[in-house]
Write a structure and sequence with these properties.
The complex is a heterodimer. Chain A contains 3 helices and 18 strands. Chain A is mainly beta. Chain A starts with a helix and ends with a strand. Chain B has 3 domains: 80 residues, Immunoglobulin-like (Sandwich); 111 residues, Ferric Hydroxamate Uptake Protein, Chain A, domain 1; 543 residues, TonB-dependent receptor, beta-barrel domain (Maltoporin, Chain A), CATH 2.40.170.20. The chains are: A mainly beta, B mainly beta.
Chain lengths: 264, 769
Amino acid sequence: MKGKLHIIIALLITVCSSCVEVMDDFELNTAAPRIVVEATISQEKATVILSKTTSYLNPSNVPYISDAKVTVAFNDTILTLKEDSTGFYSIKYSFPMETKYHLAVTIGDTFISGETYMPKTVKWDSVVVRLSEFSEMYHQIDSTADLYDVLVYVTDPKNEQNYYRVETYENDTMKSSSVTDDGYFDGQNVQLVTMLGVYEVGDKLMMYLKSIDKPAYEFYNTLALSNSSTGMFSAPDNPKSNLVGGALGRFYAYSVDSIGVVFE
Amino acid sequence: MKKTFTSFMFLVLSLMAIAQQFALSGVVKDSKTGEVLVGASVSVVGTDIGTFTDTKGAYYIPLKKGIYKVEYSYLGYEDLQTDVQINDNVKKNVRLSSSAIKIENVVVTAQAQDYNISSTQVGVQTLSIQEIKMVPVLFGENDVLKTLQLMPGVKSAGEGGSGYYVRGGGSDQNLILLDDAPVFNASHMMGMFSVFNGDAIKDAKLYKGSMSAEYGGRLSSVLDVTMQEGSKESIHGQGGIGTISSRFEIDGPIQKGKSSFLIAGRRTYADIFLKMAKDESLRTTKLHFFDVNYKFVDVIDEKNRISLSGYIGRDVFKFKDMFGLEGGNITSTFSWVNLPSEKAKVTSSLVFSRFDTETSLGMSILDACLTSGITDFNWKEDCEYRLSNNTIQFGGNVMMHRFAPGHLTTSMLEQPIDLDKRTALEANVYVNNSQTIKDIVKIEYGLRFSNFIGLGATTNYEYNEEHEIVDSTVFKRGEIVNYYPNLEPRLSMNIRIDETSSIKSAFTRTSQFVHLIQSSTVSMPTDYWMPSSNKTKPQTCSQLSIGYFRNFNENMYETSAEVYYKQMQNQIDYENGANLFLNANLEAYLLYGHSRSYGLELFVKKNLGDLTGWISYSLSKTEKQFQGINSGKWYPVRYDRTHDFSFVLMYDFTERWKASATWVYSTGDAVTYPSGKYIIDGSTVSYYTDRNDYRMPAYHRLDLGVTYLASKSERFESLWSLSVYNVYNRKNAYMIYFEPVDDENPDVLQAVKVTIFPIIPSISWNFKF
């Protein structure tokens, strides 16, 4: 069986390599550089990264922007972020949930602003880990490894609009991230994480549930569409930014809950 | 005074002449099969009086009292001359015998040789089944839709696919009729093959410029496909074994000379080979499509004729119980043709059409089943009344649409997601007159009054800019939700310059009340149809076209040059980030705009001789403008291919050997690629500027086909056909993506193109008895 599979894979590679070809003479335009703002507020910290766009095919090093004035304001508090390294600004603070935050960035003559809301945390409900129905099939490829299903559930708060960003990590490496609203499952118990993988003793999985606001959801949702657009689907567009002042990027705040699985 | 008297006398004499006019009418049929001959020429020798048989094989010539020599002719058939004495209305049914040797060579459309210059219609393409069967195509599967793509003004929706765009209109703006039944999804295998089985098809006519007021419901074009009728004389059959599928057709009389049947079937068999596999999961995998066409005809008496025809087709892909994808069309048409007098014809039809899809996942981690569909019921009455210089058509129809946009049950959720089922009525009336003025000007004018009525039960929502519901209105079952009337004038004119040339022009207005929600350029199981609503207004289109038509060498060559300008309103696109999947509030994310298309189409066709074929060229531009896309500026649509060129050649070497070649060239699709990039969350994000500002590389391809008639006798015929797709193995870009040049420098990217069809030979064996 193993031999046969190798033949099939070899065949597939031959077939596919004949239909994929590098285009040497293909060029893309390079648009005039634009400012990019990546501003994030968690419950402990605010970080802002300032940079500019580069050429798509032949980029220079990322042009980070130094010496900008960056502030975050909420309620009656105004905090100025400190530039840790070129283009990276941050401040540690215990940022409250259910609060609206304002961002102000001044780069030379350019002023960029934005606002976001940190919703209260929605907690993971439960996690199910079990041997996968495909595990036996997988033994034909590797008889020593087991395939597991990892399913994580959440109970969505009823009658309120919730937006989530779900991130999964395997041994501290990000495996996936996605956003969803509760349009399909308001108030229901829902399986938000579906993972299928080979895990060994000592493997550690972490699942984060970030509660975010609608503009943040729209940014990540349109970002995913923009990335997945391969040309066969409708024309891609830039992610929807919630920044004012002509910059690309986003400003968002999140509150987070996490759940972990360790294989023993 | 004298002048007035002369005029008066002239008028009286003319009136008397009209009063004394009788008619010669009848039906022209094939002497062997009894099948009616459409477009056979009936002419009065020594005069320029003449006509062609209609789609039911019937003809009608107004004549004064006298004795005439009448000639009946039809391509591939022996001419027939007969003397007719007219002193009353005369009925003459005629049977023509096929000229045995030449019939296989007939590759010209079933129409008069100078039809292209004499008809009023501008922007009409007709394809005969012989042409369709001669043109080489992918995997050797003859295909009406793929052959149509070789005509000017018709563009392919994608490599190897059967979807098409007509003069800048979308693929959902083409009305495809199979014996009057609308076909919602005219393709199998997500667009790879068309649903039309060549053995069951008689001919296909595409109206892209002017359509008679009889047709409506879609903006861009009408493809009228007529199913073959069975022989009323003896049993016949044909079939074939090909690379992808096998087919079999049988037809013959039910009651000799009176009624007939035809049944044709086709099935692909990739999964039959899978059954031989050792592996169980492969053995139980299903991957096929099938379709069945049937037609029953009964000639009750000289004045009445009924027929029942239909289509059932389905695509099935199933991998164990883990993944399933199924879908297909069912259509059926019952039609009754009644001739109350020699001059009148009444056709009544009842039509049913349904399209549905089902996608399922059956795994312990994820279990889901998604279904969607649309069903149409249609009752249609068409009347035709012939006067000496006028043919008046009028009629109407009432159509009910049932929309089931989507229903999903899944283990992920506690409750299913169910989009509102909707019901809508379309009621249309039309009148159309074709008039000949002094044999020089032919004019066809008509008016269609279309009405759309959306019905409950449903809820109408009003949205704000944030896509939130701000107001809703609940409608009870059967309650009228919205009403859209639309007047659609149609006008076309032919001015005959001389024997061999004419100028034609047309103005057409059309409207469309149903809208396809489509996530990509290929047909997907998640696509669904939705009715017009309070927010989504009916789409409308106005088109003006003008053309010069000229034939050379006694109609051996036909040429034409046409220009057109087309404007479409209330076009639909989606806001950035719109979720098309089972979104009950999708309308909040719809954008409405307009599009325009204009172009020049050149066509040269050689109809007769051992070498036949055509060259077609279109120069065109199609753009859209939407508030909220591309900063409100006009942008080209993806399939805005500036130059589009097709070259089709068919050559008969001998009686047994024939060859054909097709070469196509078109400008690459207009696409959107990044003009910069930046980093968010440590990952690269593309930066886009103008919509569809880049071009894919130009597309071109050569296909060759050879057929060999292995044996031929009265009773049995066998034919081998070999075709090669993409002969010089052009690596046409199906898709372009970007990847790092090497691992050390992941930020430096290069463009990589994906080609899906390299050179593909295929062979098939066909038989006929």
